[in-house]
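User: Once you have settled down, look closely at the record that follows, taking as long as you need, and be ready to discuss the fold:
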Amino acid sequence: MKIYNCYINNIKTKGSFFTDKDFGSFFFSERINKELEINEYCEININEDNVNINNSFIGNNLYKIKRDNCFIYAVALTNQLDNIEYLTLDDLSLQSEFELFTGGEVLEYLASICNLPNGNYIVGNVQDYISSIEKILSNYIDKEAFFRGHYYYKYELVPSLYRKKKYYENEAFMYMDFKTQFYRELASKKYIEILTTMQHYRMPTRLLDTTSNPLVALFMACDKPTNYKNKNYGIGEVILMTEDRRNIKYSDSNAVTLLSCLAVLETNYKQELYEKITESIKKNDSSIYKNSTAYKRFKAEVQTELPCFDDSFFTPEVLLNPKHVKVGMINDRIIAQSGSFILFGLCNYLTGEYHPLKTVTKERIFVVHRDYIMKQLALLNINTGTMYPDKDHMSSIITKSYD
């Protein structure tokens, strides 16, 4: 691992370069007992193993980070420099013995910076998180915000149905099996209500959970899933999505009915419908999908919930592109979590390709020090019991409070 001699305003120390596609590229000094007078910006010059950092009024961002009465000086690099040996989180794994800093310490340094120069954020407490949310939303005054929190920051915005081929190939069977098992409760429910209930009980569906409450999303980014085994540094993520209100749908809207009823179509019909619609759009010829058996099957299914469905008002793109949906407060968990969903459309059932949600802007906030954040959230009455207000979770919370 490369360690460079470093001169900060002619004070000699040591340091190393670090890079990551999500966090950006930096030079971090070792801990220095002396606080140096530095500007907000600096010039950085490299000559073989020597790094010179000098005050400037323009240039690279220079940060002074205090830790245990010592100071770390960090330079954010606007571009990766040539002929430099960079460290990564893989190099600074939990077992590494690099002498200047660990990967965990690098994450602490980044959390102190918080608003990273590459546009992402990283936070280690509730206060910085709220400040980051306020700063981001100040740029989207006329938009509606939704939040998605997940425990591992490399998790993709993909519904559980599309994560495994055996799921999306058997969607209709899973849907009907679930409805059959709870027929008395679900017989009169709409497609979206059944899908929402399936999602509630952790069934694979074409729904992806979001929330209108940023603290709920933060809890989800810190709440360790059952049987989670990743041994890397604990980095969660909250994705802040802003959406034009005109693009948001409600559970009673026709578009939601059209998308959600796809769940009951057999896979061969869905694949044919996907292919015919894609071809129709490409050739600008609606007769291609309208004359297909799959569309006739789809239309018959839609009319069970929308008897007056008129395909003269139907645009085929609606079955491909996901929609953000505000659902009715049909269960305690949705109420507790201020829940909403992204409802996904058809995919290519041969390749697994699907259309992502393109109408939103997405900002990323990485989350570290999650045990500490969970303690802060508990002071705000945000815990497993309030997020999952069922008897199983509540009894677990009560028991743990006496351990």
